[in-house]
C-alpha cells in the first residue's frame, strides 16, 4: 500500500512539475514560434531523446516497465527523435540521401587536418619506455594489482585493500 501511495505521489509531482513546460510548448506551437528553435537546442533535444530511449530499454530489460507501456513510450520517443533528426537535417541543409556521405567527407577532412607527429619526440618516448622495461624488477616500485597502492618488498598483502600480493 505504501508503494502505491509513493508511486501516486511521484506521478502527481512529475505532472505538476511538467505541466508548465507542456503548456508552454503547446502555446509556442499555437503561436507559430516552434520554428525559432536553434540548432544547438535541436542537438540537445536529440541527445536527451536518445538517452531517454536507452533508459527506457534498460528499464524494460530489468523489468521496471511493462511491455505494453514500453511499446507506447518507445514509439512516442522514436517518433519525436525522428522529427528532431529531420529538423536538424533541414537546418544543416542536408537531404537524407546526402547525410552519410557528407559526414564521411567531414571525418576524412578532420583526419587530414591533424598535425604530423614529431618524430624526435616519438623516438624519445619510445627510448624512455624501453629503458623502463629493461630496468631490473628490484628497482621497480611494487604496486598492488587491485588498487595501485605502493607495496613494501616484504608485503604479502596490500595494506590498502587487503588483496594478496604475488610473490616474485
Describe this structure in words.
There is one protein chain. This protein has 168 residues and is mainly alpha-helical. The chain has a domain at 41-96. 67% of the residues lie in helices and 0% in strands. It contains 5 helices and no strands. The longest helix has 30 residues, at 2-31. The relative contact order is 0.05.
Number of DSSP-assigned strands? 0
How do the helices and strands follow one another from N- to C-terminus?
Answer: HHHHH
Q: Give the structural class.
A: mainly alpha
State the low-pLDDT regions, or none.
none
Give me the number of helical elements.
5
Radius of gyration: 28 Å
Which bin fits the share of residues in helices?
55-70%
State the end-to-end CA separation. Answer: 60 Å
How much strand content do the residues show?
under 5%
The gist of it:
This protein has 168 residues and is mainly α. 67% of the residues lie in helices and 0% in strands.
